[in-house]
Amino acid sequence: MSDRDGKRMAVYGRSGSGKTHLVKSTFLNVCDRVVIFDPEEEFAKEKGFHTVRTLEKLLEVLSDCHDSSFKVVFVPEVRMEERQLHEVSLLIERLQEPYKEEMSNKKLMLIVDELSLSFPLNSKPAYDGFDRLCSRGRKRGISIIGITQRPADIGMRFRGNLNRIVAFNFSTPNDLAVIAATCGQEAVSAVRELKQYQYIAYENGAFTVNGP
Ligand SMILES: Nc1ncnc2c1ncn2[C@@H]1O[C@H](COP(=O)(O)OP(=O)(O)O)[C@@H](O)[C@H]1O
Ligand SMILES: [Mg+2]
């Protein structure tokens, strides 16, 4: 894995634990090309971001940006999240093809909030765009941040091979089992003891406790 490759990060934690807040305060400016898939309109008012609600509008914004930097929030239609994340993913994969061919050095960050709505555990095989992006994104310079309150309920392709896992407090047994399997039992004990807005960050086989 090289620095050129895109990275994949998960942010887990129960509702209200501080997931969206952390992503807003830490990750919106690390890349100058950002697409946020935002079912609950948590990011729509962020400074410098265009909000769009259709694929056509998204395409328009992407083709209008002459210096090829963009910050765009895509709000999917209610109950169309799965299909629309699929479509947005296909578009992004195509957009980053030149990066893979080494004809471009422009990375892209895709942030998906409430991932269990758009990439559930048993997603429809026809909507495999995001699944593909999880494996094909790296060589295309696409970094992905997936945010969810229920890690046990999202597709396996996203959960496997993550570069970084951030976990706020939660206590549901099947979600803690995901932490146990990916970060180890010590991390589970740490997660259980986290105070408000604290989180663990797991990377390269070790974790740290962060936050207030
Ligand atoms: N580190 C923090 N310090 C102060 N307030 C915070 C912090 N993290 C989150 N909050 C506040 O807590 C509420 C819930 O946070 P949010 O990020 O929306 O949670 P989640 O996305 O996990 O449901 C928000 O009003 C947010 O402003
Ligand atoms: Mg949130």
- Going by CATH, what is the homologous superfamily? P-loop containing nucleotide triphosphate hydrolases
Which value, in Å, is the CA radius of gyration?
A: 17 Å
The small-molecule ligands in this entry are: adenosine-5'-diphosphate, magnesium ion
CATH architecture: 3-Layer(aba) Sandwich
Query: How are the strands of the largest sheet arranged?
Result: 3-4-2-5-6-1-7-8-9
Percent of residues in β-strands? 15-25%
Q: Give the rounded overall mean pLDDT.
A: 95
The assembly state of the depicted protein chains is single chain
Low-pLDDT runs of 5+ residues are: none
Q: Count of helices? A: 9
List keywords for this structure.
212 residues; alpha/beta; Rossmann fold; 9 strands; globular; binds adenosine-5'-diphosphate
Describe the structure.
- This protein has 212 residues and is of the alpha/beta class.
- The protein has a single domain, classed as Rossmann fold, CATH 3.40.50.
- The chain is 34% helix and 21% strand.
- It has helices spanning 19-27, 55-64, 81-95, 97-100, 115-118, 129-136, 156-159, 173-183, 185-192; strands at 8-12, 33-37, 50-52, 70-74, 108-112, 142-148, 164-168, 199-203, 206-210.
- It has a 9-stranded mixed β-sheet, sandwiched between helices.
- Helix 2 links the parallel strand 3 (50-52) and strand 4 (70-74).
- The longest helix is centred in the middle third of the chain and has 15 residues, at 81-95.
- The chain binds adenosine-5'-diphosphate (ADP) and magnesium ion.
